[in-house]
Amino acid sequence: MNNERWKPSVTVAAVIEDRGRFLLVEEQTPEGLMFNNPAGHLDPGESPLEAVVREALEETARAFEPEALLGLYMARFQRPARHEDVTYLRLAYTGRVGEPIPGRTLDRGILRTLWMTLEELRATAARHRSPLVLRCVEDHLAGRRLPLDAVHVDGSLYEPLRKA
């Protein structure tokens, strides 16, 4: 019997709309070039809000200002050739970005950023890194919004409690 506790891979994503277009990244993956919301993994000692600001900056070279939590999403991804079976727990935020920061490069693996309409997103669904890309955009358009403080981060995240 396997005694290892199952843990989902926790990620964050930024859903950014400007005049009916959404900011996406095109990234290199083992499955080829794919589209994704600016997104990435939560690092140890980092709140989801800090992570989404960092990831959006790294992947778009733009400062991201979160305005609301869209929701928590789960999806499972299997890559049999690599014996990978990963369940992702995504915290998606909506907000705004500024202009690209001069001299700032995109994260490794990100080829470019681009703005896409909902119709373009739907037409390219086969090239989405996850089914959550479109789902998060549709939830944004439906007006789903939770307050940023819906995710409580205890101070022990930064200063772990120590038991004697």
Explain the overall architecture.
The protein is α+β, with helices and mostly antiparallel strands. It has one domain: Nucleoside Triphosphate Pyrophosphohydrolase. The protein has 3 helices and 7 strands, in the order ββββαβββαα. Strands 1, 2, 3, 4, 5, 6 and 7 form a 7-stranded mixed sheet that branches. A hairpin with a 2-residue loop joins strand 2 and strand 3. The longest helix has 13 residues, at 48-60. The protein is globular. The protein starts with 8 loop residues before the first strand and ends in a 23-residue tail after the last helix. The model has no long low-confidence stretch (mean pLDDT 95). Residues 5-138 form the Nudix hydrolase domain. It comes from Paucibacter sediminis. Monomer. Belongs to the Nudix hydrolase family. NudJ subfamily. This is Phosphatase NudJ.
CATH architecture: Alpha-Beta Complex
CATH fold description: Nucleoside Triphosphate Pyrophosphohydrolase
Give the name of the CATH superfamily.
Nucleoside Triphosphate Pyrophosphohydrolase
Write down the overall geometry.
globular
Briefly, what CATH class?
Answer: Alpha Beta
The proportion of residues forming helix, as a percent range, comes to 10-25%
Q: Mind summarizing the main beta sheet?
A: 7 strands, mixed
Q: In sequence order, what are the helices and strands, one letter per element?
A: EEEEHEEEHH
Number of domains: 1
Alpha-carbon distance between the two ends: 32 Å
Measured by DSSP, the beta-strand proportion falls in 35-45%
- Structural class comes to alpha+beta
Low-pLDDT parts are: none
E-strand count? 7
Mean pLDDT: 95
The whole-angstrom Rg is 17 Å
Number of helices: 3
GO molecular function: nucleoside diphosphate phosphatase activity; ribonucleoside triphosphate phosphatase activity; thiamine diphosphate phosphatase activity
Cofactor: Mg(2+)
Keywords: Hydrolase, Magnesium
Domain Nudix hydrolase: 5-138
